[in-house]
TrEMBL record:
Database matches in CDD domains: LbH_AT_putative
SUPFAM superfamilies linked: Trimeric LpxA-like enzymes
Protein's UniProt name: Acetyltransferase
Domain annotation PglD N-terminal: ranges: 6-82
Sorted UniProt keywords: Repeat, Transferase
Top-level division of the source organism's lineage: Bacteria
NCBIfam families, A to Z: NeuD_NnaD (TIGR03570)
InterPro entries per UniProt: AcTrfase_PglD-like (IPR020019), Hexapep (IPR001451), Hexapep_transf_CS (IPR018357), PglD_N (IPR041561), Trans_hexapeptide_repeat (IPR050179), Trimer_LpxA-like_sf (IPR011004)
Record-linked Pfam families: Hexapep, PglD_N
Organism lineage string: Bacteria, Bacillati, Bacillota, Bacilli, Bacillales
Length: 212
């Protein structure tokens, strides 16, 4: 029998509900509960333990693993750093209905939803989300705290920088580089490189906002 790990889920919104369902299917995970500032007693059948101030007590009680189930990339990355500094290790939430190639490399604290495909020699960075029915083809590099939204399709050898969001249904041709902390709008078709810290939309995608 695999060793079971007690896990606290940080967050209790819609994204957390999907993550909790996936973690329930993992025979190595024993869900201790979740943290949130919102009122209530439970989320998706697991107890709400309080806000994030309870994490230290949980650690002292022997809960040593966590999953940060927050959809916002910047907030997720920040909370992951804080949770790691508090001593927690991260588990991955991977749907049994996802396909992940044997040669793919996965970071920690990542979510891979139902219907997602991760092909050969792809690297998925820590805290990334590969959402429902997203497809990441061979030799892609997905950076830390990225979100590849539902139905997005990435051809081979695509690089996506740290913290970037590819909106629902984004299409990216092979060999493209998308910079860090950028946003590509839903339904965009990316046929040329996208710089850091910008928003790009349309078919083909063009930069409509550049942030410093």
């Amino acid at each position: 029998m695999p060793t079971r790990r007690k896990v606290v889920v940080i967050g209790a919104g819609g994204h957390a509900k999907v993550v909790i369902d996936m973690l329930k299917s993992d025979p190595t995970v024993d869900l201790a509960g979740c943290t949130t500032k919102a009122p209530g007693t439970e989320v998706s059948g697991i107890p709400i333990l309080g806000d994030d101030s309870v994490l230290q007590c949980l650690y002292e009680e022997g809960v040593r693993h966590a999953f940060v189930a927050i959809g916002d990339n910047r907030l997720r990355e920040k909370l992951c750093r804080q949770t790691a500094e508090a001593g927690f290790e991260f588990v991955n939430a991977i749907s049994p209905r996802a396909f992940i190639a044997e040669s793919a490399t996965l970071g920690s604290g990542i979510a891979v939803m139902a219907g997602a495909v991760i092909q050969a020699d792809t690297h998925i960075g820590d805290y990334a989300i590969i959402n429902t029915n997203a497809s990441v083809d061979h030799e892609c590099r997905i950076g830390t705290a990225c979100h590849i939204a539902p139905g997005s399709t990435l051809s081979g050898n695509v690089t996506v920088g740290t913290g970037t969001l590819l909106g629902t249904g984004t299409k990216v041709i092979d060999g493209i580089r998308i910079g860090q902390w950028s946003v590509v709008g839903a339904g965009a078709a990316v046929v040329r490189d996208i710089p850091d810290h910008c928003t790009a939309v349309g078919v083909p995608a063009r930069v409509v906002k550049q942030r410093s």
